[in-house]
Amino acid sequence: MEKQTAIVKAGDTVRVYQKYKDKDGKDKIQIFEGLVICRKHGNEPGASITIRKVVSGVGVEKVFPIHSPIIEKIEVEKSGKTRRAKLYYIRQARGRKAKLKQIEQKTVAEKTSKAQNQEV
Question: pTM for the whole thing?
């Protein structure tokens, strides 16, 4: 899990799968999807990420300890271009100012195949 969480940074839109027990005692998974506005304490055991999403016009933030056994997995949906480590200004931003530019994620295989096609 440590390798997977090392790639999560501010500006990423992520899906966090969190385990919980329902009233019957069964383990269930709850998904929380939103924008990572900050990451604290790097890769230490106490590291955490703050995720924000807007539900019915109300901003909701949740802090997840990255290395907690409650966290099943973290999926990165999109990556945003940022110039700051902490995106607290997103709390006051509305409309277009609250959006981040996307970073295209190209794999090494795609880059090498394009380079080979250009040589031929």
Answer: 0.74
